[in-house]
Automatic annotation (TrEMBL):
GO-annotated biological processes: cell redox homeostasis; cellular response to oxidative stress
Domain of life: Bacteria
Quaternary data: Monomer.
Transmembrane segments: none
Protein's recorded name: thioredoxin-dependent peroxiredoxin
Record-annotated active site: 44 (cysteine sulfenic acid (-soh) intermediate)
Reactions performed catalytically: a hydroperoxide + [thioredoxin]-dithiol = an alcohol + [thioredoxin]-disulfide + H2O
Enzyme nomenclature, EC number: 1.11.1.24
Lineage: Bacteria, Pseudomonadati, Pseudomonadota, Betaproteobacteria, Burkholderiales
GO molecular function: thioredoxin peroxidase activity
Organism per entry: Pandoraea eparura
Keyword annotations: Antioxidant, Disulfide bond, Oxidoreductase, Peroxidase, Redox-active center
Protein family membership: Belongs to the peroxiredoxin family. BCP/PrxQ subfamily.
Length: 153
């Protein structure tokens, strides 16, 4: 089962920087979950920095941000420290969270096909209901669009 707009997102707990992340623990606040392919790659670095640079505005709007990729906790800790990211990064090595949100897609890189994370963002309201989805995200201007949606919710 994957999540759908205007339906409750099933609770999940996953290993993250700073300790396990549980969706249920964030009831009462909006949650922005963004999925990205890999730590320390150009697009993922830019996206993380954009969320970091707007973090205070997300907090002022009552939202928590969390990033998700299949990288290890150690990789995430280094990436988080290097970019000074003020929000947790979930390590989804078993792809359980990725499967819940339906972000694993067949991708092509240098003519070869492989399964990878489709850059995607999900906005969950204070009651745990999925309100907005962005798939096949292009990094420029994306964070501003997500912030506008959070502020409008």
């Amino acid at each position: 089962m994957t999540v759908a707009i205007d339906t409750p997102v099933p609770d999940f707990t996953a290993p993250a920087t700073g300790g396990d992340f549980s969706l249920k623990a964030h009831r009462g606040q909006k949650v922005v979950i963004y999925f990205y392919p890999k730590d320390n790659t150009p697009g993922c670095t830019t996206e993380g920095m954009n969320f970091r640079d707007n973090y205070a505005q997300f907090q002022a709007a009552g939202a928590q941000i969390v990033g998700v990729s299949r990288d290890s906790l150690r990789s995430h800790e280094n990436f988080q420290r290097k970019l000074e990211l003020p929000f947790p990064l979930i390590s989804d090595g078993d792809e359980a969270v990725c499967q819940l949100f339906g972000v694993i897609k067949l991708k092509k890189l240098y003519g070869k096909e492989h399964l990878g994370i489709e850059r995607s963002t999900f906005l969950i309201d204070e009651e745990g209901v999925l309100r907005k989805v962005w798939r096949s995200v292009r990094v420029p201007d994306h964070v501003a669009e997500v912030l506008s949606a959070v502020q409008a919710l």
